[in-house]
Amino acid sequence: LVERASKKQNINLMQLVYGKSASTSNTSANEVKDDSENEESDEDEFFKPKGQRVKNSIEGLDGGNINTEDCSKSTKFSELKNWKEEEVYESIRDRFVTGDWSKGALRNQMSEAK
Amino acid sequence: MGKITYKRLKGSQNMRQRLLLATLKSTPVLIEDIHADDTLPGLRPHEISLLRLFEKLTDDCLIEINETGTKLKYKPGIIVGGSHLVHDCGVSRAIGYFLEPLILLGLFARKTLVIILKGITNDSKDPSVDTFLSTTFPLLKRFGVPSEGLKLEIKSRGVSPHGGGEVHLTIPTVQHLTATMWTDEGMVKRIRGEAFTTRVSVQLGNEMIYAARGIFNRLLPDVYIASDYRKRSEAGNSPGYGISLVAETTSGCCISADTTVSYPRGDEEEDIEGEEKKELIPAADVGEKLASVLLEEIEKGGVVDSTHQGLLFLLCALCPKDVSKVRVGKLSPYGIETLREIRDFLDVQFVIKPDPSTGTVILKCWGSGMKNLSRKTT
Predict the structure, then answer these.
(1) Would A74 be classed as within a structural domain?
(2) Which residues contact B7 (CB under 8 A, 6 or more apart)?
(3) Nearest chain B CA: its distance from A46 CA (Å)
(4) CB contact (8 A) between residue A111 and residue B355
(5) How does pLDDT run across B227-279, given as a tens digit for each residue?
(6) Residues B136, B240: one domain?
(7) What ipTM score was computed for the predicted complex, to two decimals?
(8) Residue A82 distance to chain B (closest CA, Å)
(9) Which residue of A lies nearest to B359 if distances are taken between CA atoms?
(10) What is the pLDDT of residues A97-107, one digit of tens each?
(11) Contact yes or no for B215 and A9 at CB 8 A
(12) Boundaries of domain holding B252
């Protein structure tokens, strides 16, 4: 699911942020919403919280809730990985100076070439 | 006097960015439907406090609010700044909420801004004052803000619900920012942090530090978390504890995370007392969780953490007419909202390119050519 979401993101990041036309902007607004809420199930069309129905009825660029809280932090404490497990913490080993320096350098070179 | 044309906006979302950009660009704004559907409609206390703060710093600005507070007319004035200013931020949002726009406003003021801010210094919703010191200020230096002038002193700490903290802030003025090419995120070389306690046992601070270190030590030996135990008048009015961490990389990037635990601000205080005060999260868990949050921020990649994305984009857009290029991790919702506001107000659109090999995003933009017009040239 995450992979699919990231693929989608790759294609139209520009559209996702700015929106292109009326039709795409609606979907992009939904996608942003999906991103933040980890794709709430699409199947139960029947039971929608009040806010969501309002969102769909409003047309325009960012049809989300217009009174969302102004907050720069977006960390969710409930969705943390277990960083005590070896596999998990070894996965970011190369982001630290204790890891493989050549791999760390490669990471930057590769992206700079683009 | 000619008729003023207002830029029409809806809702209370991104109020800070909107007011900030409106002030910087001298665009009058008219915001409607502010919390219109709520049981208590209208502007929230912190939003009003923010408006008062903008009023204090500017000259000849006009704020009109309708009876219910759902409609706001704002005509910005000239940003003056100045010293000996005091502002009570209230207790509905932390000082971090006000600092984020205030810093940028101060940079483009006529005079150096020296202000005393009172309220909540640390809470879980907004970046703590420690994070501003450890991460936000180095970020500003990247854009050519002189480091000598930037100052933030924590005179006393205050946590929710009753606050009582006080910080002294000094922001220098700049002629203009400098564009930056900043895509090298480097590797994490050390982790620093600060744990604080107010009106609770010192032991809780040590527990947080011990737990956080436990997570990091497998990855990095260079971890030092200082402790800040506040007592009596320096500890504000409420008990609480928290920790802020920052990971510094070999290329000088700072990735931060912070949190605070205290009793919630309740509108219904009798309720809370009836329930015999909810238990707070144990200190050891807080340390462990926050350490995990920091590792997750590091995993995302990028030259800043997700909290600072908005500020980073604003700085890029406010640069002179030159190209800025930055790398961030996954775009945060706040970052995306900020990008939209930047396009609406400054007419600056970023070129956003994903970098699939690392899961990061590279953003490029052509600065809006913002200059500090009110500052005297020397």
Answers:
(1) no
(2) B22, B27, B28, B29, B30, B345
(3) 22
(4) yes
(5) 999 888 889 889 999 999 999 999 999 999 999 998 876 554 444 444 445 67
(6) no
(7) 0.71
(8) 8
(9) A6
(10) 887 777 766 66
(11) no
(12) 188-261+271-300
